[in-house]
Amino acid sequence: MITILDVEIRKLNGSLAALLAFATPALPGGLACLSLMTSDRTSSWTSIFNEFLLPIWALFLLPMIVAAFTTLVGQIEHRGRSWDHLLALPIRRWQVFLAKAIVVLVTSGCITLLALLDTGIGAWLGGTLGGHVPVGAIPWQSLARTMFLLWSGTTLMIVLQLWSALRFASFVVPLSVGIGGTLVALAVAMTRTQQAAWFPWVLPMKIVTSKAPVPFALVGGIAGVIMLAVMVIDLTRRDFR
To answer: Of 1, 3, 56, 96, most Cβ neighbours within 10 A?
Structure first.
């Protein structure tokens, strides 16, 4: 299994998926830098992370990045027409799909950590250039807890995105799934309805805005693991062409 994971990681090296994973987390950092450069007041580190980064990341940036990343991961096999060769190797088919899921889940967690780091650097740089360096202590403990809950709660969304990207050869399908899910989350945020609180694309937002985020993280994590098993079974039985 370790060898298969190594192969999947090597496939990402030099691909657009790897570029996306490293480049897109810098977006909130760039926004924070520009905002503090032009601001005439001093912000706190707590507000930068809790009021700026986490809401925009959970509601919009993370779902869209996951949609694009999983689509590119799926296109590595579909565009190269390498399914026949890959699934003909002397390894069990379920191991191939499980390895892809593990790599995607771990990479998605690393993307969120990079966004946290880039935002801190961007805010410090913008504050230094603008003369208003953020004040107060960085809430490392609460950020670490939120990052862990967010990684767990987005498991279901990530698995659904990866499933659509691997099952369908057209890149339009997984992108449509991601855009549609994100639009639903935006609608829920604007209307403040509670009827779609457990929708996979809404769970990240609930985790960062709710006073009791643990249930949302547990639902996303447990349902994600169950959906991962269903995905592996379905793809193992599928005839790729």
So the answer is: 96
Q: What percent of the chain has pLDDT over 90?
A: 63
What is the spatial distance between Cα 123 and Cα 240, in angstroms, rounded to a whole number? 47
Tell me: the pLDDT tens digits for 111-128? 999 999 999 999 999 989
Distance CA 103, CA 211 (A): 31
Amino acid identity of residue 162, one-letter, is L
In the 8-state DSSP scheme, what is residue 43? P
Q: Where are the domains of the chain?
A: 2-237
Nearest in space to 99 (alpha carbons), one of 207, 221, 236: 236
On the question of pLDDT at 86 being above 80, the answer is no
Q: What CA–CA distance (Å, rounded) separates 104 from 216?
A: 21
Could you please report the per-residue DSSP string of 180-225? HHHHHHHHHHHHT-STTTTSTTTHHHHHHH-S--HHHHHHHHHHHH
Does residue 170 have a pLDDT over 80?
Answer: yes
